[in-house]
Every structure is written in structure tokens, then in C-alpha cells.
Amino acid sequence: TAGETFQKKMAARQAIALLFLLVAALSVSSSDAAFCHGKPGPGSPNLSGIWRGEPRFVRSVANGTLYEVGQGDDRIWVAHVFGDNFYDMGSASASLLKDEITKFMDSVWIHLEAQVQTADFLKELPAWLTKIIANEGLAAGLDATYEITKDYTPAWVEEEQRGMAAAAGIDYKLIRRIHLIGELTKGRCSMFGAWGSATADGGLLQL
Q1: Angstrom distance (rounded) from CA 110 to CA 15
Q2: Nearest of 63, 92, 96, 65 to residue 163 by alpha carbon
Q3: Mean pLDDT in each 10-residue stretch from start to end of the chain (207 residues)?
Q4: What is the pLDDT of residues 134-192, one digit of tens each?
Q5: 3-state secondary structure string, the chain?
Q6: What is the pairing mode between strands 76-81 and 193-194?
Q7: What pLDDT is recorded for position 73?
Q8: What CA–CA distance (Å, rounded) separates 185 from 174?
Q9: In angstroms, rounded to a whole number, what is the distance separating the alpha carbons of residues 94 and 87?
Q10: Alpha carbon of residue 136 to chain centroid
């Protein structure tokens, strides 16, 4: 109807306006917010021994098995997923860790909204405006980032995320947005990178 069309146009204009506000705020302090400032240093040596025990079986689903390794505070999950396509593998990982993934995604989004409200590049704005940007502008900014980068992102990334979303009962866009935070802020932090002869297919693996 005409009323619905008008509402959609207004919502789109609001999203665009909020996105411009967010981009402008980011550009003002990009040198402070967009990049990591830590430098390599010797630090304290990691004297923890290498855990050589056998992985402990936790549970399994179609196309996936969950194991636990380590002890005490050093325990971590190891999910082995497989299948004919990445949707099935994403579905398997979310089926194995549904509660953990749901809790993680919700808590991370809450944290990101709080960070936007208190970030240096927004501290000069009134509280009501930072709240709007946190609730509406951040999502709009991440959706715009998706549109800009999707042609350069392998199709399997979206397939896997959609499989995770379906199995965990989470909004696909929430998963997609959280994975695009680093792209939006142009974060360049990494702890590990392997490529060329160090990987099975010669591609880049980055942590």
C-alpha cells in the first residue's frame, strides 16, 4: 500500500542518515579507533606444558562431533565438522554448540553496542544520539559493509553462516554483522598467519 511504501522509504532514509553519522564519527578518529596500537614484545614466557592427552568425546550430530581437550581453565572445545557443503558444516557446528553460540552472539552484540556508546569517536555526541547510533547506526554500518565487500567474500562464508543461524535459531544478520566488525573498523590485529606451503591449499589462514 501507499502507507507501507512511505514507511519503507522513511526507514531507508533514516538508516542512510544514521550510517552517514557513524561513518563521519569514525573518520574523525580513525587513527585512534581503526587500528591496533600494540607492539610485539618479549612479555612473560608461556611455561605451560603441551597437553598431550586424548580428546574427550562430548557429543555428536549429523556431520559433526564435539570433543573437549585440556584441563582446568585450559579446557577448550574442538568441533570436527564435515559434509558435502558449507551450509551443512555450519549447521553441524551450531547444533553441537547451540547454547554456547547463542550466548556468545547475544553477549558480543551487547558489548559492541556498549563500546560504540563509550568510544572516543562518539564521546562528544549527546547521549541520545550515541544510543540511536548504537541501536540503529551500528547495524546499518555493518550492513553497508556487507554490501561493499560481498563481491570479494567467498560464497562459502555466507553458506556456513546461514547454516549456523538456522541450527542455532539466531538471526543470520546478527552472525554476519558480528563477523564484519573487524572490516568496518579496519582492525588489523592478528595472532597467527599461515599461507603458501604451510597450508593444504596454499591459501591464507589467519587467527
Answers
A1: 20
A2: 92
A3: 44 40 39 50 74 92 94 88 94 95 92 72 56 70 83 94 96 93 70 83 83
A4: 667 778 778 878 888 899 999 999 999 999 999 999 999 999 999 988 777 666 666 67
A5: CHHHHHHHHHHHHHHHHHHHHHHHHHHHCHHHHCCCCCCCCCCCCCCCCCCCCCCEEEEEECCEEEEEECCHHHCEEEEEECCCCHHHHHHHHHHHCHHHHHHHHHHHHHHHHHHHHHCHHHCCCCHHHHHHHHHHHHHHHHHHHHHHHHHHCCHHHHHHHHHHHHHHCCCHHHHHHHHCHHHHHCCCCCCCEECHHHCCCCCCEEC
A6: unpaired
A7: 82
A8: 17
A9: 11
A10: 17
Put the strands of the sheet holding 64-69 in their side by side order. Answer: 56-61, 64-69, 76-81
Angle at 197 between CA 192 and CA 202, to 5 degrees: 80
Using CA of residue 77, residue 86, residue 184, residue 171, what is the dihedral sign? negative
Q: What is the pLDDT of residues 155-168, one digit of tens each?
A: 999 999 999 999 99
Provide CB contacts within 8 A for 136, sequence distance 6+. Answer: 14, 15, 18
